[in-house]
Amino acid sequence: MNYIDGFRDPDAAARYRVTLAQLGQELADQGGRACFMEVCGSHTMAIARFAIRDFLPPAVTLVSGPGCPVCVTDPGYIDAAIELAGQGKIIVTFGDMMRVPGSRSTLAKSRAAGGWIESCYSPVTALELARAHPEREIVFLAIGFETTVAPVLAMLDTARRSALPNLTLLVAFKLVPPVLAALIADPELKIDGFLCPAHVSAVIGANAYRPFAENHGVACVVAGFEPLDILYGVEGLLRQKIAGRATVDNQYNRVVRPEGNPVAQRLMDHYLMPAAVSWRGLGVIPASGLVLRPEFAQFDAEQRHQLTLQPGRPNPHCLCGEVLKGKIRPAQCALFGVACHPDHPLGPCMVSSEGSCAAEYRFASGVTP
Ligand code: SF4
Predict the structure, then answer these.
(1) Across-strand partners of 291?
(2) Domain 75-174+278-304 belongs to what topology?
(3) For the chain, which terminus, N or C, has the lower number of CB atoms within 10 Å?
(4) Is 205 in the pocket of ligand 1 (CB under 6 A)?
(5) pLDDT in tens, 315-344
(6) E strand or H helix that includes residue 6
(7) What is the rounded CA–CA span in Å between residue 140 and residue 341?
């Protein structure tokens, strides 16, 4: 047995099925039901891949939330990136962004039309291009949750210390705790607990959810990505629901510390400050994003080029907004698997491998990872 196999043990999973069934019956006997939400694209993918919903008792629903960083990026951001490419800037982006629809087009189409748009696996690519092409401005598309922020800032820190004048960021960083609060405030949603994202929690720490859990009375469990991690996480949420508790339970303590990663947090505090930002499908949420501090304006593509990120216009037939809020499952969108599929995505949730629509399409269709 290796390290991963231990968390994929079928016998242990069968025992979880029994435990969850007993707890589900206990909840049902109380006249209760529970709705839990996972807020992490990697959880969404693992839940679909390992058919975790098949392990849940009838009294428990597990819905997917806005955990895919590409999916929550507003179409107006893509529009701005395409505009910068049209002005001759070299755009560097994580590959998932290439096919995400903006209001009118995508970065992939902009590249086909002659824009210089590089997809990358690491922000360091932007640094290398800035050094290789001092005559051009390199704009790195700085999107993502707390997980992605520190590596991007480490790259920016190197650029600043190297006095590279031709590298900027188009910033659309998002924060997880504020979006959880926005989801709880939605009267159409009744979420009893969150399966908190593992990678994000490694940065912000499990304690970051304590004010949220206490103020909103919602259970939070930090869980890893393997099937037994997720089943254990759901068990923890269910036990809190039955006991009427709402606390933070860190079940991924082999990676996540209560205080998180102080080095990454210091870097974030140094360069960034909170701001109200627009989320695809969820609108503008106060203090739910991070922007560059004024003293670093020379690295801010938005300020340097007098751009203002405006909310864009998503495809009116795409229901990604409802999918991202957990109000519908992907298959409830009439376009799912018909007009919209991974080879021809109409919305971001079908583009990214971490998107709910792509995960459901891929694993429900029997394609193995
Ligand atoms: S199936 Fe396609 S069109 Fe429908 S919500 Fe998902 S991404 Fe949008």
Answers:
(1) 273
(2) Rossmann fold (3.40.50)
(3) N
(4) no
(5) 999 999 999 999 999 999 999 999 999 999
(6) none
(7) 28
